[in-house]
Amino acid sequence: MTKKLTKEELTKLVPEGCRLNWNEQQNRYYxxxxxxxxxxxxxxxxxxxxQVGTVIDGxxxxxxxxxxxxxxxxxxxxxxxxxxxxSDKVCRTVAEEIIDTGQQAxxxxxxxxxxxVALLSSLSGQTNCTQIADYWKNNRSTLESLFNDFPKxxxxxxxxxxxxxxxxxxxxxxxxxxxxxxxxHQFSSRIIAVDGQxxxxxxxxxxxxxxxxxxxxxxxxxxxxxxxxxGEKENEITHAADMIEGLDxxxxxxxxxxxxxxxxxxxxLVGHKADYCLxxxxxxxxxxxxxxxxxxxxxxxxxxxxxxxELGHGRIENRTISVLPAQLLDKKHLNKWEGLDQGCxxxxxxxxxxxxxxxxxxxDRYFITSLSWDNKNIVEQCSRAVRRHWxxxxxxxxxxxVDFYQDxxxxxxxxxxxxxxxxxxxxxxxxxxxxxxxxxxxxKNAVSVKRHMxxxxxxxxxxxVLPLFFA
Length: 471
Known about the structure:
The chain is of the alpha+beta class. 41% of the residues lie in helices and 23% in strands. The strands form two sheets. A nine-stranded mixed β-sheet has the order 7-6-5-8-9-13-12-11-10, with helices on both faces.
């Protein structure tokens, strides 16, 4: 039987501030801490005990529950410190990149805090001005505890809208670029897709399909690198080449639709040490016909092919990629397109069978690329470039319209529209990074964007995402 210990012996064993109870049946001391909280219903304090550990045979041991609580508390404290540090960095980045044109003596809502809350709100899919204002109101007490100078009054949706209208989109784009920089992983031969998206709800009598935004999208990292609002009497032809300035595209493959297949665009890409894979249609009629003839030439035996069958969406798709050296083209074409003399011609054939009706259809598409014909993996590179281009539609435009309700954004102000769209893309980039981290840790497919959004409704969860921007 274990004997009882003296007071001096126990004092040396147990942590400071703890109390003990001797249990006769189990021959051990129970070590606990007491806290007292006033209960107005009984008009006196109630004691709350937390078990710390036990003393058995003169040896003190912490209880498992206490150790788990301690680890959880330490983890929460570390997470809060990281989140607070990341939040401060976001605010500093806003202050450095975005010029606040308001009179500082009259500023009631500092711009860094407005954009911080807008970003946190967007992570949960709440992107319109009313939702951002409500998010501010619902989480103001917590934000006040994190930031000593956080405004102690609610913000109106009109103020949020006015601030988003006043901020220069180029300055906001610079802010977004700084945030997404740590999220960019330098994959070998990244595919950058260039395409535009119309915001349907912003339509006017002059623009019946809505305002149009041209985007450079990193399909491997799931990031929007830059965007530009196309004016009423403009198209993407005049802007795609100019948007390359300031982007680090070295070693990437840039893909684009037929409208962006322009000589200046190709030349600028090669000048920035990037390769291109551009769709060719009848807007370049002579080039289009010459490429078709090259693949119809039965005497040409150098074509390399790859074949793939895909099932889904109620259909069977047979995809065939054929590649030929661009040297088959007339020299006048090779002289016009920078880098094409060492490049390739691509023919993508898709044969589709509807599983229900058994109807068959066939589509041939043609591309030019500066990817070297001498590369032993050229057909795989070309196949990946052609296929990954659709990532901008499936992984960006579709998600923005369905999950962020971007297609319903009604506005006439160009600044407001661009900043709202950029905010959506920044939030989506963070969610994509969370999905990738989840897949790396679990080895399973990540949960959907919608489910991540529901998690980020809680302020603590959305704050925990911010350190990703500064990893």
